[in-house]
Amino acid sequence: MLKKALMLVSGNAFGSALLLLRNLIVARLISPEDYGIAATFAISMSLVEMLSYLGLNQMIVVDKDGDDEHMQNALQGFQLLRGIFSSTVLFLIAVPYARFLDIEHVAWAYQVIALIPLISGLQHYDMHRLKRHLKFGPSVIAQAVPPLVSVLALWPLALIFDDYRIMLVALLVQAVALVALSHLTAERRYRLQFDIAIMRSATKFGWPLLLNGILLFGVFNGERLIVGRELGMGQLAIFSMAMTLTLTPTLVLAGACQSLFLPQLSGALDKPGSFRWLGVASIEAGLAIGLLLILGVVLLGGPLVHLLLGDKYLPILNILVPIAVVQAIRVMKSGSSTVALAKKMSGNSAVSNLFRVISLPVSWVALIQTGEVMMVIYIAMAAEVLGYLVSVYLVVKRTELTLSPLIVPSVVAALTCIAALVSDWNYPPEPHLGPHLQHGSMWLVVACGLTSLALMSNLRGYLIRTLLRRER
């Protein structure tokens, strides 16, 4: 199991690192204003994805009939219908979306991006089905190779374009590569079927995930839209890059943890004791990911930004630690969402994300009145704290998990977040490592974070058992 976990983490990390590398290369090649426009491409795709996301790739893992070939074919047919719908919506909203951001001259680019959901709709679902049997190879390949192809395409694209069009074509290349690899790594023949009963069942399973997708759009992109509209593409580039740098590692590790824990939790549904133990370990894993992000940003954030992006993106250092805290609290909810999903309680994530979405109008008004991005960040932070508390409460109540092992690690994790913010107020990240390491408040953050990690007894026990099982 440890070997599979390492494969998941390394595969996801490799793919996400390549996507981050692509973004960094593009940011180096073009102006911040053009990078701000490029950042809106991802927002537009997220906008249509949220309108049709039903978690079909998760359903084929957790449903008792997920191995049935007819069901897989029907889900693939449903996925194609989703792609057609999403492409149509994206094409229709391209001009209004560009007008909203005051960049109407690039509306044509959003119409071109409308091809991506259609391409993605042709994806083969074998790579998802095989996760039921803890065979993660095809999905890891499909996650890692397309970003590599996208990165390799940047060199010829840079010879042709010198603006946001580099990112536009790179996204198309990645979508085509993903679909191609999903077919090349499949064991079954690709077929499409359209079964109304399975579509109805998938919709019943996925409507809470659809709702959560709408909420996640607000979580990941709401503040970006607000900043882009009110402060312009240059400020959006700074804000979006800070979000990307802190979001990428959390998505990698949270995705790997879900892929690792979800099949095991589903397999332990008829063993209440094992399920409760694994559930607490899953929640502690989410906490651990958030803490690792904070420690990494506090220790190395400033020098990494300077190394990767150069002087033109140094304003990121003014907001990097607070945004990292927001992302850390957000990812701390991922463990409880995985536990709830194993019980087919897919609405748990939606409820926990609702607070962040509700906070968006408040953030918008605050930004208009103050012109300060930090107000947006602090409001998002408060919303994520409420979301975390509610997510843990709901999963404990609905799945009968034991809350007591989580209390002390959660409290110390909260102290770590507070210490990081206090340290940032007094000593913001610096582009050079030497002076930064001399601040005592930074080492208090490290001490709190390591203490919280040490207190996660179920996660520690899970890792030890996995190691012992591997040695046998």
UniProtKB/TrEMBL annotation:
Localization per record: Cell membrane
Membrane topology: Multi-pass membrane protein
Protein name: Oligosaccharide flippase family protein
Keyword field contains Aminoacyl-tRNA synthetase: no
Keyword entries, A-Z: Cell membrane, Membrane, Transmembrane, Transmembrane helix
Matching PANTHER family: LIPOPOLYSACCHARIDE BIOSYNTHESIS PROTEIN WZXC, PST FAMILY PREDICTED COLANIC ACID TRANSPORTER
Domain of life: Bacteria
Organism of derivation: Albidovulum litorale
UniProt similarity note: Belongs to the polysaccharide synthase family.
Parts of the chain that traverse the membrane: 37-56, 80-100, 106-125, 137-158, 164-184, 205-222, 234-256, 277-301, 313-332, 353-370, 376-396, 403-422, 442-463
